[in-house]
Amino acid sequence: MAEIRSPKVAEPAPPGGAMSADRHGLLEHSREFLDFFWDIAKPHQQTRLEATEKLLAYLRARPEGSERKYALKRLITGLGVGREAARPCYSMALAQLLQSFEDIPLCSILEQVQEKYDLNTAKKATIRPVLFANLFGVLALFQSGRLMKDQKALMKSVKLLQVLSHHYNHLQGQPLQALVDILSEVPEAMFEELLPKILRADFSVILSSPRHLELFLLAYRKVPSKLKSWMGSIDLFTDENMPRLVNVLRLAATSAKKENKLPNVALDLLRLALKENKFPSFWKEVLEQGLLTKASWPASFLCFRLLGAALPLLSKEQLQLVMRGDLARHFGEHMVTAKLSSQSKFIPEMSEYVGTFLEGCQDDPARQLSVMVAFSSITNQGLPVMPTFWRVTKFLSSQALRDYMAWLQDMFLRPNLDCLVDFSTANQKREQDASFNSPERAVFRLRKWIIHRLVSLLDTLQLEKEETLVEQVARFCLFHSFFKTKKPTGQIPETKQQFSLDMDSRIREFFVNAFFSLLQTLTTKSRHVPGQAHSGHPWIYRLVQLADMLLNHSRNVAIITPFTTQQRQAWDHMLETLKELEARSSEPKAAAFQHLLLLVGLHLFKSPTESCDLLGDIQTCIKKSMGEKTRRSRSKAINAKEPPWVEVMVEILLSLLSQPSNLMRQVARSVFGHICSHLTPRALQLILNVLNPEANQDEDDAVVVTDDSDEKQLMDAEDESSDSKDENSESEADSEGEESEEEERDEHVDPGFRQQLMEVLQAGKALGGEDSEEEELSDEAMMALDESLSSLFAEQKLRIQAQRDEKNKLQKEKTLRRDFQIRVLDLVEVLVTRQPESPLVLELLEPLLNIIQRSMRSGGSSKQEQDLLHKTARIFMHHLCRSRHYCRDVGHCTSALHGQVERLVRQAGQQADSSVTLYYFNASLYLLRVLKGSANKKHVPGGQQQQGTGASDVPEDSDSQTTNCLDLDLVAPVYSAALSSFLTKRNSPFTVPMFLSLFSRYPTICKRLLPVLLQCLAGSSRARQQTQACLLLQKTLSARELRVCFEDPEWEPLIGQVLAKVTENLRELGEAQSKSENQKQLTSLELLNTLLRIIHHEELAVDLTALLGVLQGQQQRLRQSLQQGEHSIGSSRLYDLYWQAMKMLGVQRPKVEKKDTKEVPGTSESPISTKRKKKGFLPETKKRKKRKLEAAAPEEGAKPEGATPVATGGNQPPSTGKKKRRRAKAKGLAQPQVNGTPATKSPAPGAPALSPSTPAKTPELKKKSKRLSRVNGDTPVSPTEPSGKEQHQKVLAKKGISGKSPQSTLPRKRSRLSVVRSPSLFQSGAKKKKSLRKKLRTP
Prior knowledge:
It is found in: Nucleus. By secondary structure, this protein is an all-alpha fold.
């Protein structure tokens, strides 16, 4: 530090001594301080805030230092930096600083800003940052909160902002906006004083820009009397000013286009119009007849935002004026024609405005109702433009919600088209004929929207609190879906609801579907409503009771589709069964059956014929299932030929799943969960027949045919969407359709049609009476030819349309079939989840695998195909193969399961995709798990432990084979053939992780497959297969589970055989010519390291002499290839693995000396010239990560090449005693080697030298410091010893370190056997330069 503080390095001192001292203190302590200013300008807001807080805390801790002055200077400088994103950051920090330190005068800060960024002296090229610096300087003063207290600074700031407002090209209207913000907080007395200076008494100037108008409105709001006395008449809403106001608002809309918010000037004008009772004229002349005449998206969005912001300010009459005018129609047209791709719809923003309004007037339900009715009355040819599901209804009060539902029901019963704000788009007016504008079509569209709106309202209701409303909507939907009034009665309020226009069949179908959708919503949200008369009953039960009551009032109510006697009996029997089930409601199975019975009973009104048969079958199955425990033997004896009830129930559930109803899907899943324990093989086969694609292709499955009502609903929905589309989209669709038709027409041109066309053309020439092509045909011949051609092309068009319809039909059937299979998979998932120990689960393996295989092969990109594949794979892997529980009683089908294992493994090897093979292989592992976990009936142990999870089965030894059903003699050849195929075929679908999973779970099988791996490890196999064999052996031999399967006399010869094979492979080490050969050598070395660790850990007597000789013979070749750069990718890894093996054999890796590439400067150079003046500090983010040494010490160049540098000396900085001891210890323990042979540590006198042919055997290890290897009991000696070897041995002898083994401390202190650290190699940056300067100054 003496050199840093020397006058030769420091900057020239200022005249004042105190300033010099402060500057030196700043330089010494400002590392952390200067980093604050870099963090302040970063783009992340949290980083900026933290940096500002830290800066203020730092300055508060040093109130008397020079840091505050420097901080002000840096922040003022940052106001005009080139990065535009950094200027607001510095302005915010400056404001916080001025707010924290109130002793800083604001005028001085403003003067410093103007002095630093002078507008008068700034050049044209640099005027932009100067302008912004002045603007952000004023904003910093304003944001500090002290500007209102300093009148002088306020006047200067206002004057500066007026000057900045003239530079509109750079600053736009920001100076005037800042002026408005400042003056809005100025007291009235000061505002009156400033008014003549900031505002001109000229309406042409005031109405020239939005900022001037906003300034005028601010003055009118704060000092109206002063403004009137100064300007006289201040009426803005005159006929002369209306066009100017339109232009000002148009400019304001354009300027706020990117901000997506309402300009303040528009809202201020609205408030002024309301205050002066000029709202009707302002709304009509400025907005509807002004901005909307030449509508643009910015102007339209300004009007929409003004409409939303005006809702809380308007009275009920004014709301009627606004919501029934041209702006409401324009908003509706925008909702219909806006495209999401080009222009975003305004509905999310309008929903926020309406939600805020509704939430703010909870105590005024009349205003809430008027707004909801007004928005629901904006219709496009009868269809309301607002969505049926609108979340703002959650803000409605209870009274407003009831009134709104009453209005919806009344509009449904008696549609009043005159009260609607209806419109038609320009495209609809141009394209549609008069039939589309009929009142019947408008009523149909309105009623359809009301139905969905009523159902969607229940999603936002809390069923417990609003039970009355829920029941009212449910009764309304049920009654008008299936019943009609014969005679009104007070007992049934729905009978008094008379239609002004009768419902047609299409509306009734919509109503029926909406009712079941309502039923699903009620079932999902709440099962029952507590505290009511029907406590404990679900909503569906209450609706069934209501339907029964309506059926009993036949004098007043009539059913739309009358019941036959059989259907009515089915309904009555259903009610009786419900009472029986209610008596046993404590059983979960009874509740599921009750839900199923209720749902099918309500479907009796929708499809009486099908539901009647289902009800009878369901009741029969319920009675048999509930009384099965006591009467099972009698039922079997009496009704031996009848199918079991569970099979009938499965068929019923499959038929219910064919309907596109999520409620049916949930009920079927729930019921099957309670009956799956009684499932029979025949019932399971019914499910598998649906999932089997081969069987379904030829069958005529009626279950996948949808109802006609769904098709009509889809067609109506398409008509509705097509009516509401823009003409552009319609024309684009038409053009695309014509192009596709032309392409298909060109594709389907067959030779027969071409031949017919040629015949027609030839016949046309014959009609002309001339065979010559030069003469033209007569008019009669041309007309005849035209008729023939038109009829021919009409027939061809019909033929193409028939082919297209047939193709669409097949595609639709395929989609329905896939959708049905996805629903049926719910039953499979329930079975494997609820009954994983059932033997029937084993029959699901191959059908699920067939689905996965077919889906993977087809490569279908449709959503149904992907969903089917993903769901099947999830059930197979997560719920089946990885389940905690599995079947444990397979003694009766052991041989069949062994055959299935063989079949699955064979099919896995025949797949073309490895991902499919993985599923088959996992299925075989699952069967092995079942066989191993199932106890053999002949040898059942007393206390058999259960298996754990499928992912981590506990391996068993060979003795436990007799306690389970797994026959290794049958299974091992199967996997042996698969492993041989994997290690011999070029493109085998098997992978290494598959066999690793097999070996880790079943080590007894792995023991039998080891000869196959040894056979492929060396020899004529390909390099890739040998690599895989090495990898398998490396992962397998190190596993604890496999070692348990081997006795000690078996294990040592096995390790010897593997070691011999690996030694064979290593004879070609370093000669790899391809990537596969290089990978083979890498895995061979990894396997060798694993073997050596096993040998040393278990103290195996294995001869390592041949291995050591082979490795030493390849050392020179590896070193040359690494140094010359001729090695392929991975050779550095190969070199490291090689020396890991040599290290375990007792051979140390030689140290590689790093040489400096740059030249050493001459000794004649002055030491002072190498010093650099310290000009300041760089932040940590600006420092270079690696500073290269510019000049090396001349003493280092004179060192011998193989000498070890001394860590301590006169040329090194002083170090502590601990560092000296570490250097001495590292230098003593890590001596370099020559030719890769180890250096000895105090060998015994007369010890014989090592010969490569000397046999080497591993001795016993003792604790952690056991010796790793020894050759004939002696330490290997290098042929050539390094210099200073004898002295080093004496040092080791003095310290008491034994020299018998060079690796005695390796397991304990492995990290300390690194190369001795040289200061010249490990010093960086300033330390290197400092060491260099010391050396240069040393004589």
